[in-house]
Design a protein that fits this description.
By secondary structure, this protein is an alpha/beta fold. The protein is 34% helix and 15% strand. The protein has ten helices and 13 strands. The strands form four sheets. Strands 2-1-3-4-7-8 form a six-stranded mixed beta sheet, with helices on both faces. A three-stranded antiparallel beta sheet has the order 11-12-13, covered by helices on one side. Strand 3, helix 4 and strand 4 form a beta-alpha-beta unit. The longest helix is centred in the middle third of the chain and has 22 residues. The radius of gyration is 20 Å and the shape is globular. The termini are far apart.
C-alpha cells in the first residue's frame, strides 16, 4: 500500500479530490508534487461520491483525499474498501470536522491519516492560522515534524526541503484553552442543527417551487461546522434573508474543476457539483447562536417559501 510520503515524492502521481471543497484541498495536492483529479460528489451530502471516486482512478493514482465537508463525515467505509482494493493511500481533509466520527470511527484515523485546520472560524479555532496532522504512521509523523521546521534534524542541519510552518506559542496557548470546550460546543452545534431541521420541515411548502431543503445527514458523527441548505432559487433566497437581517454565505460558489488555479489540470465534468454550487447556502450556525435566532432564521426561510417578505 502506498503511503502519503510516496505520494509527495512522485510528481506524476494523482490524488482524487472532491469537486466541492475549499480550493486549498486541491492546492495541497499540487504543493505535495502531485496532480489533483476531481471527482463528483454525492447529491445529498456533497461529500466525495465513492462511485465517482473509483471511476476516476487510473494507473497513476496513488491517493484519495476525502473531505468531511461542513462537518459531515464522508462515506469512509466504502472509500476505505476502495482504497484497500486499489492499493491507495487515504489522506482525510478533517479541517471542518473536529470530533466527527464515521460509523463510530474518528475521522482522520484511517490509512495515512488526516489534516485539521485551526483557522479562527473552524469548530476549534485559534486567533490566526494553524493546523495539525493526524497519523498512526510513526515514520510519516517524524517526516512531517521535520518538514514543518525547514527539514531540520538538528540545528542548522536540513535533510529535507521543508517549510516554516510551526504553530506559534500564542496560537497553541489559545487552542489549549479552548480545547476543553470543544465537546460542549459540538453538542450545541448538533442541537441547533436539529432545531433547524425541525423548524424548516414545519415551514416547508412542497407544493410550491421555492422549496428549501437541508443537506442530508447520514451519520450521527456529523459535527455541523456549517448548516447548508439547497434551493433552486438560491440567489433570491439569499437576497430575501439579507433583507430580513439574516447574513448567509455560500460554501462554495465555484467547484474546483472550474477554478482558474486548476486550469492546467484535466477537468472532467462533475454535474452534481456544478448544480449544487448554484443552489447551496449556509445559514447562520455557531455555538453562541440562540434558539430564538434559529427560529427567526427559519421563519424568514418559511416566508420565502410562501412568497412573503417579512416586515
Amino acid at each position: 500500500m502506498p503511503s502519503a510520503s510516496d505520494f509527495s515524492e512522485c510528481a506524476s502521481s494523482g490524488a482524487i479530490v472532491p469537486a466541492i471543497t475549499a480550493a486549498y484541498t486541491g492546492l495541497a495536492v499540487i504543493l505535495a508534487g502531485g496532480t489533483p483529479v476531481f471527482a463528483d460528489v454525492d447529491p445529498e451530502t456533497l461529500t466525495l461520491d465513492p462511485s465517482a471516486c473509483e471511476a476516476a482512478i487510473t494507473s497513476r493514482t496513488v491517493a484519495m483525499v476525502p473531505v468531511h465537508l461542513y462537518g459531515q463525515p464522508a462515506a469512509m467505509q466504502t472509500l476505505h474498501a476502495i482504497a484497500q482494493r486499489r492499493s491507495l493511500a487515504i489522506v482525510e481533509d478533517c479541517c471542518q470536522a473536529h470530533l466527527a466520527t464515521c460509523a463510530g470511527v474518528p475521522v482522520g484515523t484511517r490509512r495515512a491519516g488526516g489534516a485539521c485546520s485551526f483557522y479562527p472560524t473552524q469548530n476549534l479555532g485559534a486567533l490566526g492560522d494553524g493546523g495539525a496532522v493526524i497519523t498512526n504512521d510513526a515514520s510519516l509523523a517524524e517526516r512531517i515534524r521535520r518538514l514543518r521546521n525547514g527539514g531540520q534534524i538538528d540545528r542548522y542541519v536540513h535533510v529535507d526541503a521543508g517549510v516554516n510552518s510551526r504553530l506559534d506559542d500564542v496560537q497553541a496557548a489559545v487552542l489549549r484553552a479552548r480545547l476543553p470546550w470543544l465537546s460542549r460546543w459540538t453538542t450545541r452545534r448538533r442541537s441547533l442543527a436539529a432545531a433547524y431541521r425541525r423548524l424548516l420541515a414545519a415551514t416547508a411548502c412542497p407544493e410550491r417551487s421555492r422549496g428549501v431543503r437541508p443537506l442530508e445527514a447520514r451519520d450521527s458523527g456529523h459535527v455541523y461546522h456549517l448548516f447548508v441548505v439547497r434551493s433552486s432559487e438560491r440567489d433570491a433566497l439569499q437576497a430575501h434573508l439579507r433583507a430580513s437581517g439574516v447574513e448567509t454565505l455560500i460554501h462554495y460558489p465555484v467547484p474546483l474543476p472550474h477554478q482558474p488555479a486548476f486550469a492546467q489540470v484535466r477537468r472532467d465534468d462533475c454535474p452534481v457539483a456544478a448544480r449544487a454550487a448554484q443552489e447551496i447556502l449556509s445559514l447562520p450556525l455557531h455555538p453562541r447562536l440562540t434558539d430564538t435566532d434559529v427560529e427567526r432564521v427559519s421563519t424568514a426561510v418559511g416566508a420565502f417559501q410562501k412568497g412573503r417578505i417579512l416586515a
